[in-house]
From TrEMBL:
SUPFAM superfamilies found in the cross-reference section: Nucleotidyltransferase (SSF81301)
Source organism of the structure: Clostridium senegalense
Descriptive protein name: GrpB family protein
Pfam families linked: GrpB
Amino acid sequence: MDEQNQVREIEVVKYNSSWKKEFMKESKLIEDIMKEEIIKIHHIGSTSIPGIFAKPVIDVLLEVKDINNIDKYNNELSKLGYVSKGEYGISGRRFFLKGVYHRTHHIHVFEIGNLEIEKHLNFRDYMIAHPEEAKMYGELKKELVIKFKHDIDSYCNGRNQFIKDIDRKTYEWLKLKK
């Protein structure tokens, strides 16, 4: 069956130490295409947090010089299997996904200085520094995938309050670290 006739099935799996290698490999491919624009490349999302359950999708965050130049790379990224989704709900972002129903990677592109960069990196760093809360997040995702295996919107909505609580805790944690 081709991807056009399939329903996306959400999967949450045990942490896989190869995710870091997959991130590095994909980052190199992306960098080869967009090297003129990229300032930094970051591994974000649950696959960047050791030990927790995650959707097996590698999230790559790119900090770039000028967000307005990113669309000119759409064709080259499509040769790697990426689909451009534009801002996709977040102003000032360019979002790409690899695999519509059997997704393997996401690329989140933000211009340097965009507050979303700090938000994603701080969330990741907080979760790494607080493995008990990271484990709770992984357990929540396992519960949600049982309830919403074919409903990504409900799955995401089920995580929203937890993520907001972690964002608040992250803010307090960062204030204490200063």
